[in-house]
Write a structure and sequence with these properties.
This protein is an alpha/beta fold. It is built from 10 helices and 19 strands.
């Protein structure tokens, strides 16, 4: 791969237009395996050391760096609302002078060990929820996120790859110890990491990659497919959303297939190719991540089988809806919007609960009882 970020100079031309962040940004470094490794932290203003918060690893692509990724695949406005810490690490430099992540089994650089040590370093300084550590990345950063899902699964709850993929030999030796929720976002006209793969390099076809992870998670193999509303008529592409659901321990695999999209981050503020503007990749990734916690994914399967059945009706709804359970017991019912804001939070002891939401949108219902956590999607029209 040779990802050239032509937006780099453009980025600093337009940053005067960006909102001012009153939150804290920290540039820091650490030594790992004799190498000086640098990283950049974003701490939202809402952070309080008394409350453990999620940690999001946001990994740059080949030839890029952490500052470019911070602006291009921007999660900061979401972190401000949902209260999580973001770390933007830097890879190391190859023989051509380009920064990269060792995600192909060909380099002696131990990036998996570095990122594990980085999680430890941040956790020692900030209050991090160890069950809510996630990894995402652009291109080579997406490859590296898959590598973490395989080799660091005891610490990573879920991953998302934007324009990245996997080398088949790395998937063949994947050592994931639990079902790992995966989101893949990819353009069909990507010239750098082709959607159809590169057989000579055993780079996987994206459809094959997604299905393999759905199989690993024991998801339904017939996905639910929806068309993403074509909000932007001038971006030169459209998108479809594939959901492989009902995996082990509630895991799932999702694919945003960007028809005509290039090697780009949907919703990005700078175009470096055909960039979908019908959805925001950062928002969708966080919507996906926040459903999952490591301790639920590693829960014994027999324990998960006693999870209470949940029925929502009507769904979609015009605003009023009812939750019906198969028994009465103590539960905490939480409704959040797409960027993690809590809309309502109610303790229930009944097998029947009625709610009302006035604003249209897609919401996530989380129901927690003594033994399990269940999540369901609610659509308010």
């Amino acid at each position: 791969m040779n990802l050239q970020y032509i937006f780099f100079t453009l980025l600093f031309v337009v940053t005067w237009m960006a909102p001012c962040f009153s939150q804290t940004t920290v540039d820091a470094s650490m030594t790992h395996d004799g190498l000086n490794r640098t990283y950049r932290l974003y701490i939202p203003e809402s952070y309080n050391s008394n409350t453990p918060v999620p940690l999001l690893l946001n990994l740059h692509g080949y030839t890029s760096n952490n500052i470019q990724q911070e602006f291009y695949g921007d999660f900061r406005p979401i972190a401000d609302t949902a209260n999580f810490i973001i770390v933007h690490p830097n890879g190391t430099t190859d023989n051509s002078g380009n920064q990269f992540w060792s995600a192909f089994g060909l380099s002696s650089v131990d990036d998996t060990g570095f990122l594990s040590a980085l999680i430890d370093e941040i956790s020692a300084q900030y209050s991090i929820d160890p069950n809510c550590v996630y990894s995402t990345g652009m291109s080579n950063g997406g490859f590296m996120s898959y590598e973490l899902a395989c080799q660091l699964s005891g610490r990573i709850a879920a991953i998302a790859s934007v324009t990245g993929s996997m080398i088949e030999s790395r998937l063949d030796v994947c050592n994931s110890t639990h079902p790992t929720p995966v989101m893949q976002i990819h353009g069909t006209a990507d010239p750098t990491v082709p959607y159809v793969g590169i057989p000579a390099q055993t780079m996987m076809h994206i459809d094959t990659l997604v299905k393999r992870w759905a199989e690993l998670n024991s998801c339904d193999m017939n996905p639910t497919i929806t068309q993403v509303p074509n909000i932007s008529l001038v971006d030169g592409c459209t998108a479809e959303h594939f959901v492989f659901d009902n995996g082990t321990a509630g895991s799932s695999v999702e694919l945003y297939k960007v028809n005509g999209g290039a090697h780009t981050w949907p919703g990005a503020p700078v175009n470096i190719g055909v960039t979908n503007q019908d959805f925001d990749a950062s928002i969708e990734i966080w919507r996906f991540f926040r459903r999952y916690k490591l301790n639920n994914l590693t829960t014994d399967i027999k324990e998960m089988e006693i999870s209470t059945d949940l029925f929502i009706f009507p769904n979609p709804t015009s605003g009023n809806f009812t939750l019906k359970f198969d028994d009465s017991q103590k539960r905490m019912i939480t409704v959040t919007d797409q960027i993690g804001r809590i809309i309502m939070n109610r303790e229930s002891f009944s097998n029947l609960e009625t709610f009302a939401i006035s604003c249209s949108g897609i919401y996530l219902l989380t129901i927690q009882n003594e033994n399990s956590t269940t999540t369901k999607k609610l659509i308010v029209e």
